[in-house]
Amino acid sequence: MRCARDRARIWPRRLAERPLAPRDVAAAGLCIGCGACAKGDEALGWDRFGQLKPVGAWAGERRRGFARVCPFSPAARDEDEIATGRFPDAPERDGRIGSFETAYVGHVAEDAFRAMGSSGGMVSWVATELLRQGLVDGVAHVAPADPDRDGRFFDYRLSRSEAEIRRGAKSRYYPVEMSRVIEEMRLTPGRYAVVGAPCFIKAVNLLSAEDAVLGERIAFTLGLFCGHMKSARLVDSFAWQLGAPIGTVRAVEYRRKDPDRPANWYTAQLTLADGSERRQDWWHLADGDWGAGFFQNSACDYCDDVVAETADIAFGDAWVEPYSSDGRGTNVVVVRNPELRRLVSAAIAEGRLALDPVDAAFIANTQAAGLRHRREGLAYRLRIAPPRLPLRKRVAPGGGSLPLRRRLIYRCRRRIAIDSHRVLVLARAAGWPALYLRWAKAALRLYEALAYLRGPLGGAFRRVGAVWRRKGSDDANHALRHS
């Protein structure tokens, strides 16, 4: 009998051509909850793990059109195919960051864009500049929502003024879906820009290719570099650790900026119904190491796009020195659209943007950990845990020759991503937050021992690694002597 891994390799074409239902993708753990598949009365709802998934009768309907617009469908075009069609004349091409016109590092120099954003202010500035110059009539982006009215802390909205865009500044590590704004753009004539994570931008491009109205009206896509997406349960964890009943939380800030501290010293802040605020540095939280994967969406384990390769322009944080120590925030920017290259170049010449040109290697270095997890780590995950649906990935299954510690790190991240949701659900049902918090602290200690070789466990891993390497060297010498 063939194993699941063999079936995924041998039968991808047959399975890819089969009509899919949204529920098929969700059942395979590949639904990111973007909402590209929903329209009209169709809806996404919350599952018990705080993720948005298709709900209702339509979620079980098998249709070929859906398979072409879902970013994780085996029938959808991959990032390389989309980018080749959208940026055929791009002068630069790099396997890590895709096709592009030019790349920069720096920040916005005008007004308060930099101070208001989580990083260098470039996302809000470009969105605002597109409105100022009349290149778009509205910008679809994520902004705070009213949890009492909307049942969530953040949602997509269509902003038509600079003030509305500025209210949506800063990072949002929260599930959102864009079906409502997509329908609004479909029904309302005009030109629009869409801001989103790589998988969302991919979905927008796939939709635009299928829907002529959207293809005409969506003029620009603004991508956000992405490590992975979190579930709504991260807010529950924040509330428990900051001593705030979740029912009293009215606003969440994931990255509160402090110019006097390094940019990568994240601080989480909750605003409560009485107007008071609770905050805590991430490194003091039980689940505060981003790379460990707490509350990660399962689809993120099978994504190979870190830098929004299908977006007209993409933005990330400059996670290298001296920029990562600058608490005011610094962006890296990858420009793929010639019109946006001219827009950015003009603003640099006018002194409105403080950007310096960089090459692909610099951009890749700022995202080295994410790229390693999405390429090397993805190859290993495809080998040990292929999903029930075949995947169309630019990374082949592999990783069998990785060092033992790297393989353990990838396995540990995967278990944390899965079990953090399960344990928190149990803790909520039992009314016992300590159940989750004690588990999270233990899981984080194990992960840090593996990843950073810290503490007694880290020392043990160092010794095991030394024995492992020595054994490998002895085996190699033995093979050479007998070859």
UniProtKB/TrEMBL annotation:
Full protein name: Coenzyme F420 hydrogenase
Occurrences of domain Coenzyme F420 hydrogenase/dehydrogenase beta subunit C-terminal (ranges): 191-359
Domain named Coenzyme F420 hydrogenase/dehydrogenase beta subunit N-terminal: residues: 104-182
A Gene Ontology molecular function term of the record: oxidoreductase activity, acting on CH or CH2 groups, with an iron-sulfur protein as acceptor
InterPro entries for this protein: Co_F420_Hydgase/DH_bsu_N (IPR007516), FRHB/FDHB/HCAR-like (IPR045220), FrhB_FdhB_C (IPR007525)
Species whose genome carries this gene: Sphingomonas gilva
